Amino acid sequence: MTRLGIDVGGTKVAFRLAGEEPPAREDAFHWPSSPGPDAGPEADWAALAEEVARLRTGWARPITAVGVALPATTDAAGRVTTWPGRPGWAGLNVGARLRGLFPGAAVRWADDGDLAALAEAGRAGSPDVVYIGVGTGVGGGVVLGGRSLAGSEIGHLIVDRSALDERCDCGRHGCLQAVASGPATLRRAARLRGGAVSFADLRGGLLAGAGWAADALAPAWDALGAAVTSLGELLHPDVAVIGGGFGAGLPGFADAVAERVAKYARPGFAAVPVRRAELGGLSSLYGALLLAGQEEDGHG
Ligand SMILES: [Zn+2]
Question: How far is the CA of 194 from the centre of ligand 1 (A)?
Fold first, then answer.
């Protein structure tokens, strides 16, 4: 039995291929174009198919189950209804395309935030977990009683109605994602520093103790702290896990959110513990692999 997990992101796609015997194999590639309206689904799909063919080479056994983590919203048939990161994908039948790419394999897909939350809940050994992934967007998921609360949209929690400088890609002002996503923070950093700032620049600035780096990140940490605190009031999770490629890649990111959450706690009530994602930026990928395993085990 060979399971394949695929994490489809806004800028790149990651794979993890695991059989009965280790070692598992990991791979990733970047989409041929940046996120945005020019991102063509046919060029994206050709790149994906090419990478899958490359993965299969040298792996003797057939792939029997595939789990896919998607940031896009899909209908029951697997057709993309919205994906603000790559809007050209709207209308694309990802379900049919995936089945075409993996004939004979069981194929399932789910929201990347939901899958990441499941993977992190497993790592934390806890049935009640809130997960927030900070990357190209802000996604997340909730696991309660060991089960995924499907359809949660943590990135679109409104955390600051006065934040009018950045509009969320859903069109609204004040969403967590509009304040705390990686690109939103990098744009803030560029304004503060007076020049383009890459992720590596921001990381370097943060490590060097540069004021502009901390100032660019502060609104993101505040917004994430507000979101975790509000979710805590509603759901009382054992732990809030902060991950995503951007969040997991910056030193002290989750600790800074934890500081906010401790500060915002209601007097007399314990703050929700906040931890860095154990799987780092790979939570969705491991969740996708879990989904493939569920399909194989017949729990689908
Ligand atoms: Zn929004």
Answer: 27
